[in-house]
Each structure stands twice: as C-alpha cells, then as structure tokens.
Design goal:
Blueprint (H helix, E strand, L loop, with lengths): L1 E6 L4 H11 L4 E4 L12 E5 L5 H4 L5 E4 L5 H4 L10 E2 L4 H19 L2 H9 L15 E5 L3 H13 L2 E6 L9 E4 L4 H6 L3 E4 L13 H4 L12 E4 L8 H10 L4 E4 L19 E3 L9 H16 L15
Helix pairs in contact: 1-10, 4-6
The chain binds NADPH dihydro-nicotinamide-adenine-dinucleotide phosphate (NDP) and oxalic acid (OXD).
Length: about 325
C-alpha cells in the first residue's frame, strides 16, 4: 500500500513522521513538486494541491482533505467522480470553531472594542449592556461546525437560529432552510455567523443585498457579520462598503476572498472589524493523520469511507 501527502506551504518534516508512524511498513511519498507519475499511490492526503496532482496518481482509491473544507480539491476540477473525496471531521476542530464563534459573539455583545479603546485612553465609563438573550444570532450553515456553535451560543444564553439547505431539529434553535426562508432568517438576525462551505451556490452569497436584509432593530444597534467559513462566500467589496457606511455595525472576519489579506486592504484599517488570519479552527496534525489512518485501515478491510463529499452538492 502506498500513500501520497501533499500540503501546500508545509515541509516534509511537518507531516511525514506522523504518517510514517501511523502507517508503518507502507510506502510514503511526499509531494515535493516533481511531476513524476506515481501509479502505486492508493490514497492521497492533500491541502491546496496543484491541479496536475490527480493525473499523477491514476490509481488513487480516495483523496482525503487535511481540513474540513474541500473546495481546494473540488475547484481543481480534475478528481474523477468515481474517486471519493473525504472531508475532515474532528472533535478538536469542531470545538475550536465553537470557541471562535463564542469569542467573537461575546466580543460584540460585551463591547470589547469600545472598552479596549477606553483602556488605552485611561478612560473609565460604563455603557448600557444588553444581555445575550436580547441578541439574536443567526448561523448560516448548520453542519458539523455550525450545529456545535449553535449549541455553545445557546448555552451562553443567546437567542439562536440557523439556516441551512435542509431543515434541522436542534433543541432551542429555530431552523430555516433554503432560499425560500432566507429573508425570514435574515430579518430576525442581529449577529450573522457564516460557517458555510464554498460551492457554486454559496459563491458571493453574502453581498450588499443580503446585508441590507439583516435586522436593524436589535439590541446591538446595528447588524454584525462573522465569517469563519470561506472567503469566497462573501463579496469583500460589499462587506467593506457595508462596514464603512453603517449597513453593518461591525464584523469579525477570519476569511477573505484573497488570502493572505493584502497589506494594502482597507479592511486592516477599519475600527469596527476584528480580523483573524484564517485561524478560527486549526486542524491539529496528530488528529488529522489519525483520522486518515483509521479511515484507510477501515477501507482496506472493505468498510465504507465516512464523510465522503457529495459531488453534486460540492460539500
Ligand atoms: P458541513 O458540510 O458539516 O456543513 C455545511 C453546512 O452548510 C450544512 O448545514 C449545509 O446544509 C450548509 N449549506 C451548504 N450549502 C448550502 C446552501 N447552498 N444553502 C444553505 N445551506 C448550505 O461542514 P462543516 O460544518 O464541517 O464546515 C463548514 C465549512 O467551514 C467548511 O466547508 C470550511 O469551508 C469551513 N471551515 C473553516 C475553518 C476556518 O478556520 N476558518 C476551519 C474549518 C472549516 P445541509 O445541512 O442542509 O446540508
Ligand atoms: C478547513 C480550514 O477547511 O482550515 O479545515 O479552513
């Protein structure tokens, strides 16, 4: 059995010792950019691979994403439909996303930017404080990450609703589904949290027209956007404009259409934005490798792979 590991931006030593320990006695290839064909490769573990990679592994039985998102694989357009693409699902990753979403909802609820500025000025002043129950958080994408984030926010006390392609039954969380219910969802949302995959349907979904449909009568005195899904689900220019003209009161942005966010981007200088560098949820290497190793072992014994991407839906 032979595996190939291809991780854009990382070095061989970051990954291969983990895979060599997890799959001892097997053949391990590290993708160093050489263009040789590797007909022996059975399984590929990838993050940000080159488009040419798939043609170099003609007998691959499955391609594993080393992160939850699979757009970096599907956008290549080269993985044949009969080759399963497996996304990463891990408890630690899911918990981390819940932390980021809770952290940023709380920073907006508890007026963190305002108190931070006051501290820097040595200025002591209290302000009226809404409670979490007064704030309606709407989560776009109630998958593995969004469902966990909804539960965390519910525990904190926020009023939580979610929007997804299909209806969900999550205790205490109002479910909205499909484009037909999007307006009703937005109209009751003070903090919009996007944890969507990037697909043809979600491409540039978050635009000015959507942001204008958010509730404006809420306890935060203006809508707030959090995006920790994928940058290309938003139109950066529209989000920027909305933050500049008050359509949005504030935002927390972990993802952007162009990453890294260019140094010249006006986003960096907006006072009402918290920026994190695509760091909302980090996939711990030990966990991702253990996940792939477990799945490969099961697959070799004839069992079905878990979390295989639906190629028609794109996630
Ligand atoms: P899942 O596949 O479990 O969930 C995706 C959710 O999005 C589902 O609820 C799905 O609806 C919904 N969805 C997809 N397309 C549409 C659509 N057109 N309209 C409405 N709802 C839609 O993914 P995860 O929760 O595991 O991850 C979500 C994304 O988060 C990843 O794809 C990745 O891009 C991003 N991510 C970002 C990280 C970061 O650090 N910033 C880290 C990890 C992931 P339904 O349930 O009905 O199918
Ligand atoms: C992921 C990510 O998809 O880190 O896992 O963005």
């Amino acid at each position: 059995m032979s595996v190939l590991v291809s991780v854009k931006g990382d070095s061989r030593d970051d990954w291969m010792p983990h895979f060599e320990r997890g799959l001892p006695g097997e053949t391990h290839h590290w993708d160093d950019g050489a263009q040789d064909v590797l007909p022996d490769v059975d399984y590929a573990m990838v993050w940000g691979p080159q488009a040419s990679l798939v043609a170099r592994i003609p007998n691959v039985k499955a391609v594993f994403s080393l992160g939850a998102g699979v757009d970096h694989i599907l956008n290549l357009g080269t993985v044949p439909l009969h080759v399963p693409v497996v996304r990463y699902v891990g408890e630690d990753l899911t918990l981390r996303m819940g932390e980021w979403v809770a952290q940023h909802c709380l920073m907006h609820l508890r007026q963190h930017a305002l108190f931070d500025a006051q501290q820097r000025d040595g200025f002591w002043k209290q302000h009226p404080q809404p409670g979490a129950r007064d704030v309606r958080v709407g989560i776009m994408g109630l998958g593995v990450m969004g469902t966990h984030a909804a539960r965390v926010l519910k525990t904190i006390g926020f009023t939580v609703r979610g929007w997804s392609r299909s209806p969900k039954a999550i205790e205490g969380v109002d479910s909205f589904a499909g484009m037909g219910e999007l307006d009703a969802f937005l109209a009751q949302t003070d903090i919009l949290v996007a944890i969507l995959p990037h697909t043809p349907e979600t491409h540039h979904l978050i635009d000015r027209a959507m942001l204008e449909r958010l509730a404006r009568d809420g306890a935060l005195a203006g809508p707030v956007l959090l995006n920790a899904g994928r940058g290309k689900t938003q139109l950066d220019a529209d989000v920027l404009g909305a933050l500049q003209d008050g359509t949005l009161k504030a935002a927390s942005l972990d993802v952007f259409e162009t990453e890294p966010l260019p140094a010249a981007s006006p986003f960096w200088r907006l006072p009402n934005v918290f920026i994190t560098p695509h760091a909302a949820a980090w996939s711990d290497r030990r966990d991702v490798v253990a996940y792939a190793v477990r799945q490969i072992a099961a697959h070799r014994q004839g069992r079905a792979l878990e979390n295989v991407v639906d190629r028609a839906r794109g996630y």
